[in-house]
Design brief:
alpha/beta, 2 domains, elongated
């Protein structure tokens, strides 16, 4: 009986501690889930709006291209008319006793004057055709495409699809013909990579003390530069650049060749070829941007430490991608597990504590927020909450943190019930 007051005091302190940790945990979980649904709805709405805007721009470009083609056709018909009228013109000039030499000079001048706009329009049409044959948005306006439409092989529609759409509204397929055979589908590839990372159980395998791994997706590093996936853990900071290319990818002498099997008339022996920009250069620019952010936020860190902490690579995520390259500077998403094993083999970095990992994540999110068009008032308490929720949301959705948090909450609930029962039992001895 003498130990009952001490036991009651311990139970009371534990109850107070539980109340302090329980309510913020529940509030954070509810906030994260609510922000998650709102963010998903907002992202889908923005995606559809950008898709409609890009479709409108593409239709306008194709209409302008069709108008130029009409000019070419009219000028070509005019030239044919002049050629057909040449014998009649010479007979008329001979009947009027006009010098044939003067007639020839005049005729050549007329043909030359008529051919200039024809050749110019033809060159412009050819230039636009090359530009829009593999049309896709560029830069920060890139719109992810979730499906690839089959290539158009009809010669009739291939010719007439460049005419003004208002003249051929009876061809409903015209709007769908301006497709690309090299859709990169960036967002889908990033989601595939995130699923592969989550499936490799990195949250348990990378950190022996079961600290959480922070995943940041689509981080804005510059006005037209973003990091696809950034992984922060006790082994380092890893930048993963996703390429969702379908088909055969070759890397030869520093050049990337992308080939897609197709029965399109422009295909060579069944393949469409495209020389891609070097993703290694893009990856290095993103690394330099991360170095710059961390160096400005943490001036005490030297470049040697940053070079030892920051790493990464290029990941091809399309299931139909085939890599043919010697000593490839990239891996396929299906090999991400072996890449994770290499990370697990690294010793933990003593200086890279979990607190510093959170500070690094917040520094990167701060930098991205400053690049965005935010009102001044949002860069205070609102952004602080957004940063914490975004980090927590990534930990929830891209690892097994959510399941473990549910088990943790259940354990807290059971413990709280046990303490309540114990306190009720102790109350009887007062």
């Amino acid at each position: 009986m003498a130990n009952l007051p001490q036991a009651y005091a311990r139970a009371q302190r534990l109850q107070d501690m539980l109340e302090l940790s329980w309510n913020p945990t529940i509030a954070l979980m509810e906030e994260v889930l609510d922000r998650s649904s709102q963010f998903t709805e907002h992202q889908l709405a923005a995606f559809h709006e950008e898709s409609r805007a890009f479709t409108d721009r593409r239709v306008q470009r194709l209409r302008a291209l069709g108008n130029r083609l009409v000019i070419v056709v009219i000028a070509f018909v005019a030239l044919l008319g002049l050629l057909a009228a040449a014998p009649l013109l010479f007979l008329t000039m001979e009947w009027l006793s006009i010098s044939p030499f003067a007639v020839s000079c005049l005729y050549i001048q007329v043909l030359g004057a008529a051919s200039i706009p024809t050749l110019y329009a033809a060159a412009q049409v050819q230039k636009e055709r090359k530009r829009w044959r593999n049309a896709r948005p560029a830069g920060h306006l890139a719109i992810p495409t979730f499906t690839q439409t089959p290539p158009e092989v009809s010669l009739f529609s291939r010719f007439f699809r460049h005419l003004p759409l208002t003249l051929f509204e009876w061809i409903p397929q015209l709007r769908a013909n301006a497709t690309t055979h090299f859709d990169h589908m960036g967002l889908e590839g990033e989601l595939q990579l995130l699923k592969a990372i989550a499936g490799s159980e990195i949250a348990e395998g990378l950190d022996p003390d079961r600290e959480f791994v922070i995943l940041i997706h689509g981080l804005l590093l510059d006005k037209a530069l973003d990091g696809d996936v950034i992984l922060i853990c006790s082994r380092g900071i890893f930048l993963l650049e996703c390429k969702h290319w379908k088909g055969l990818i070759e890397f030869q002498a520093g050049e990337w060749i992308h080939m897609v099997a197709s029965d399109h008339p422009d295909a060579v022996h069944g393949w469409l070829y495209k020389e891609e920009a070097d993703p290694v250069n893009q990856f290095q620019r993103e690394l330099r941007a991360i170095f710059k952010v961390l160096k400005s936020r943490f001036p005490d860190l030297n470049e040697e430490d940053l070079g030892r902490w920051v790493d990464g690579g290029i990941v091809f995520t399309h299931p139909d991608a085939e890599l043919q390259m010697h000593d490839p500077p990239a891996v396929h998403c299906k090999d991400i597990r072996s890449w994770m094993e290499q990370i697990r083999a690294r010793p933990p970095i003593a200086e890279l504590s979990f607190s510093l990992q959170l500070q690094i994540a917040q520094a990167l999110l701060d930098h991205a927020a400053r690049l965005g068009d935010f009102p001044d008032g949002m860069l205070d308490a609102e952004l602080e909450l957004d940063k914490l929720v975004k980090v927590e949301l990534n930990r929830l959705t891209h690892s097994d943190y959510f399941d473990r948090a549910q088990h943790h909450l259940q354990a807290l609930s059971d413990l709280r019930a046990r303490i309540a029962r114990e306190r009720n039992r102790l109350e009887k001895f007062k």
